[in-house]
UniProtKB/TrEMBL annotation:
EC number: 2.6.1.16
Stretches assigned to the Glutamine amidotransferase type-2 domain: 2-299
InterPro entries registered for this protein in UniProt: GATase_2_dom, Ntn_hydrolases_N
Protein known as: glutamine--fructose-6-phosphate transaminase (isomerizing)
Pfam families: GATase_6
Catalysed transformations (reactions): D-fructose 6-phosphate + L-glutamine = D-glucosamine 6-phosphate + L-glutamate
Top-level class of the enzyme under EC nomenclature: transferase
């Protein structure tokens, strides 16, 4: 049992409140996943300023400032670091892939858990609400955010094993449930050169989606293909640099609720996570149907 929350803002006047709203939603899901938590924010001007790429990493062997100084010397572009332990967040006026490659070269033992233009991923072990406040999530701004509270079933309780899994530029996936045939798909992806960072079944789903997108599929097609290939019981929330999508398996036994207004679209494992959103009393509220992809794009 895990908890999923996500918020896609249509109204720019709400952007300054994204982090506070997401923190509140995450707090309602703590009892669904007390082990660890992760969150992703799109568009925060401090963690990922306009025109900058951001890389989030765990297991940084140096201090955040030391790594930033090393990367600045190597790239010739100023790299700024934020120490949000255990996550280190770096941003610079570089291409996201270029910054990620520089991080891998100068901190080969670190694990990149998110990268992209405008995307910040934060992960940690412990109470999700406490983690959100420690990271400073209530003050975050932006146009989209997702969060996950984890109760580990498939792998160890570590920051690396927490969701979201962000394995392609600007992409994130959070998951409630389990895939029963993920090992076969993992081995197939490995034969095609895909490398994995964990034993988590969710990473297999994230890598599969990333491969489909890289091959030219749009997000809807990628998730329809996932439904065809993966067995198990699952609800997924998938975000990209311009999209927000929800999909469930054919049985749809893992809970999910969607609320939509002119100002925002929100998704959560339970309705209680949506109760404090502005104007929720006027929202269209519904449960997503099995195997149907629900997709919204940034305007």
């Amino acid at each position: 049992m895990c908890g999923i929350v996500g918020l896609h803002l249509r109204d720019a006047t709400l952007y300054p409140r994204l982090g506070a709203l997401l923190t509140d939603m995450l707090g309602h899901m703590c009892d669904r996943g007390p082990d660890s938590a992760g969150m992703a924010v799109y568009g925060d001007p401090v963690w990922s300023p306009p025109g900058h790429a951001t890389v989030s990493l765990l297991d940084n062997p140096a201090t955040a400032e030391q790594l930033a100084e090393s990367l600045t010397r190597a790239t010739g572009v100023e790299v700024i670091a934020h120490d949000l332990a255990p996550t280190t967040v770096l941003h610079a006026a570089l291409d996201a892939t270029e910054l990620a490659e520089a991080v891998r070269a100068h901190a080969p033992d670190a694990r990149i858990v998110g990268f992209g233009s405008g995307l910040t991923v934060l992960k940690g072990v412990g109470n999700p609400g406490e983690l959100a406040h420690r990271f400073g999530l209530p003050a975050a701004q932006g146009w989209q955010g997702i969060g996950h509270t984890r109760m580990a079933t498939e792998s160890a309780v570590t920051a690396e094993g927490s969701h979201p899994f962000s394995v392609g530029p600007g992409q994130c996936l959070v998951h409630n449930g389990s895939f029963s045939n993920h090992m076969g798909i993992k081995h197939e992806l490995e034969r095609h050169g895909v490398r994995f960072d964990s034993a988590n079944d969710t990473e297999v789903g994230a890598r599969f989606v990333a491969e489909q997108l890289a091959a030219g599929a749009d997000l809807e097609k990628a998730l329809l293909l996932l439904n065809e290939r993966f067995d198990g019981f699952y609800t997924l929330l998938v975000s990209t640099s311009d999209s927000f999508a929800v999909v469930r398996d054919a049985i749809a036994c893992k809970p999910a609720i969607i609320a939509e207004t002119d100002r925002w679209v929100a998704m959560a494992s339970e309705y209680r996570a949506l109760t404090d959103l502005p104007g929720v009393e006027n929202a269209r509220i519904f449960e997503p149907e099995p195997e149907e992809v629900y997709l919204w794009h940034r305007q």
